Amino acid sequence: MATAKPLHLRVIGHNVRMSMDGMDTVHVEFTQETPSVPLHCKFLRYGEVEMPKSLEKKVMHLIKTNSTPPEEISVRFEEEQGVQLQKEVDVIAGQGQTIWHLLLSDLFPGRDVSRAHLNMAEICTIAAETGITTLGNFRVSDFSLRKQGCPLFAAFDNLWVNHATKTRAVQKIGGTVNFSISMAGGDAMRCFDLDTGPGNFFNDATVQYFTSGEREFDEYGEIGAKGTVNQAVVDEWLDCSIRRQTFGDDTADRIRKRMIEEGATPEDCVATITNITAQSLAEHYKRYAPDPLDEVFMGGGGSRNPNIVKHLREQLPKTHITTIDELGVPLEAKEALGFAFLDCEGFVGRPVMVPLHLKVGEMVLLGIIITSG
C-alpha cells in the first residue's frame, strides 16, 4: 500500500484591496506529514505594496468608463519583497484588483444580465512570466456554486481560530466588511461567513473630498471623533448594496451633499459614514452570529479606527474584541493568507468547505490552476 508523501509547499498569496490603496502579500510555508494530521502554516514574509496614484486613477477610470486597457494594470509584488521566486516559491495565488463584481442581476431591471466577476490578475500571464504554477479565479468558482464570490475564507478561518469551548469570529474591515464564524468545538461543517456592508472605501472617499486629497483616510478616527452622528442618515442607508459599483464613492457624495445642505460639518459627515460601517457590522452579528459570541478577532485597515471598535464593543458588551495580530497575523494580511491557503488546497486537489448561505456547507474545489509548463 502506497504511503502518502509529506506535504511541503511554499506559497505566495496576495490580495489587492478593494479600497485600492495597495496590495498585501504573504510568503508562507505549508507542511503536513500525512493527510490525517494537522496542516501547519509558517509565516516567512509579509509586505504591503502601495498602489501608485497614477495606477489607482487608471483602475477607477476602468471601473467607471470601461475605457482603460487592462494590459496597463499590473503589479510586480515579488520585486517589492525581494523574494527569490525560483528558489523560494512553489505556487502563486491570489486576487487582483476587482473591476466588476455583479452578484445581483436585478440591479439592471429589464435587462438580461448574468452574475459576473472581473479582476485584473491574469493567472496565465503570472505563470508565464514567473515560470511558477499559479492559481486564481476563486471568486468565479464561488459564483458557480450560487454564492456571492466573497467572502471565501470560512474554512481557513475555522482552521486557525477554532477553540474547544469558545465561539469566535474573524472579521475584515477593508473596502467592504465581512466576518466568518467558527463554532465552539471547531466543526468545519458548521462554520459560515457573510458580507455585512460598506467599509473603508465609503469613509475614505469622504475624507479625501474634505481634505482635497491631502489625507487618504481618517487615521485613528481623529476626524470622525470630532463629529456628531446623524442617526437618521445611518438608518436610511444601512440596506444599500455593499459593492463599489452600486455603493461607492458616488453614494458617499450623495450623503455628504445632503448632510452639508442640512448644516452638517465635515466632521459630522465622517462620523455618520463611519457609523454606517460600524452599525451595519453590529447588526449583522446580532442577527446571524450565535449567542454567546465569545471572541471577535478584527483585521483590515478599518480595525485601526477606534470609533468603529468603540461602537462594536458597546453593541456586543459580552464579547471580547481584539485584533488578529494577537494571533500573530498582521492586520492587513488576513485575505492574502486566506488565498495562500486556498492555493495550497487547490494545488494538492483537496476540497475545502464552502458554506452555502448560512446552512451547512459542502466540500468543493475552488479556483483555476495554470501550470508553468
Write down the overall mean pLDDT. Answer: 80
| Number of H/I helices | 13
Q: Note the overall shape.
A: globular
Q: What's the gyration radius in Å? A: 20 Å
Structural class: alpha/beta
Write structural notes for this entry.
- This protein is 34% helix and 25% strand.
- The longest helix is centred in the C-terminal third of the chain and has 23 residues, at 266-288.
- The relative contact order is 0.16.
- A 6-stranded mixed β-sheet has the order 3-2-1-4-7-15, sandwiched between helices. A 5-stranded mixed β-sheet has the order 10-9-8-11-12, sandwiched between helices. A two-stranded antiparallel ribbon has the order 5-6.
- It has 373 residues and is α/β, with parallel strands linked by helices.
- The protein is built from 13 helices and 15 strands.
